[in-house]
Specification:
Helix content is 36%, strand content 28%. By secondary structure, the protein is α+β, with helices and mostly antiparallel strands.
């Protein structure tokens, strides 16, 4: 029976034993670090100031397994004399206990790396999430991830990011619109809301459909009132979001989403998350950037006219995004069609070259 002392509930020692054994298995065991009953007895004595017998350990571990905890162990048989009749009989010994975890260390490392290398999660929140993920493993795992804690503390932060995600999740599941302010950085390195024509803060009202991650950032795929096309907004630039009572516009009535959202295809066609329709683009490329092309456009790229060091590629992509991409890979890519895009890329490269041709005053 539980007791109340000084307004606080005290837990009976027998219940504490099973809780502490579970804590020991979580902290000190995995497939490479198994514990014997003696190991658990010793840890209970040194760290929890509890003295128990080995048979108590086995009984409580059985109770944990009955409660659904996946605990692996080894079983061996040895012959021991019967205390009553003196004859040898079989005795089953359980040892090498460890708690099977929901996530392997490699899976946790991938999740932690994803947080650390993200470009939008505030440092303090990222650090807190990493510590929570570390807590899903044991003390041995923590000692191996210390060297990857290199998150920059001076990165710009939007502390409303997680609240924004919560509201958007609710809006998408309920089919509701949201309103928010959309921000840009100024020279003071802080976010400032975009303004409307009258000089006030611009209120964006959108129908949200999907949250997507690309290039280390989260984007919202949506439709913005009163327009008919698809829009994209970076979540780390959104502040002051509100869930509205208005029903969201049906996605299939939005230009570009008539057949729903095929997310891999959508992301491949919108490299930098520009809005607008995708069109076929053909370009000639050096073969040594093939990995980059697949990374950016996926496996739907079609190749033709291969030579020793070049190949022609055809993709479906947003033209504004393709212009930036082609300029970025200018030394290795030549746009063949559409001709208007080829001219825009050429003009962009000429403008970039002109920047370096113009004389500059020394600093």
């Amino acid at each position: 029976m539980n007791n109340i002392k000084g307004g606080r509930m005290t837990i009976p020692v027998k219940k504490l034993i099973i809780m502490n054994i579970l804590d020991i298995l979580r902290r000190y065991s995995d497939e490479d670090h198994r514990l014997s009953q003696k190991d658990i007895v010793d840890i209970l004595k040194t760290e929890y100031n509890m003295t128990v017998e080995r048979k108590t350990i086995r009984r409580n571990i059985l109770n944990l397994m009955d409660c659904g905890y996946e605990i692996e162990y080894s079983e061996s048989v040895r012959m021991v004399p019967n205390s009553k009749i003196g004859e040898l009989e079989e005795s089953y010994i359980w040892t090498d206990f460890y708690l099977v975890r929901d996530f392997s260390d490699s899976e946790l490392r991938l999740l932690i790396d994803g947080l650390i290398f993200s470009k939008h999660i505030p440092y303090s929140q990222c650090k807190e999430l990493v510590e929570k993920l570390e807590g899903l493993s044991n003390t041995y795992f923590r000692s191996r991830v210390k060297h990857i804690r290199t998150m920059p503390e001076n990165a710009p932060e939007n502390k409303q990011l997680f609240y924004t995600i919560e509201v958007l999740d609710e809006a998408i599941s309920k089919g509701k619109k949201v309103s928010f302010h959309y921000n840009s950085f100024w020279l003071d390195k802080t976010l400032h809301p975009r303004e409307n024509r009258e000089g006030g803060i611009k209120e964006y009202i959108v129908s949200p459909y999907q949250i997507a991650a690309t290039n280390g950032r989260y984007y919202l795929i949506c439709n913005t009132d009163p327009h008919d096309n698809v829009s994209h907004y970076r979540l780390d630039r959104i502040t002051d979001i509100r869930l509205l009572d208005d029903a969201a516009r049906a996605a299939d009535s939005v230009q570009g989403l008539e057949h729903g959202i095929n997310l891999p295809k959508h992301m491949a066609e919108h490299l930098y998350m520009f809005s607008g329709e995708s069109e076929p683009v053909t370009f000639r490329m050096k073969k040594h950037i093939l990995n980059d092309v697949i990374d950016w456009f996926g496996t739907d790229v079609r190749f033709s006219d291969e030579s020793d060091d070049e190949v022609t590629a055809r993709v479906e992509v947003n033209l504004c995004a393709m212009k930036l991409w082609a300029i970025q890979y200018g030394p290795y890519v030549k746009v063949l069609s559409p001709q208007t895009l080829a001219e825009e890329v050429k003009q962009g490269l000429e403008m970039a070259l002109k920047q370096y041709d113009e004389p500059r005053n020394p600093i």
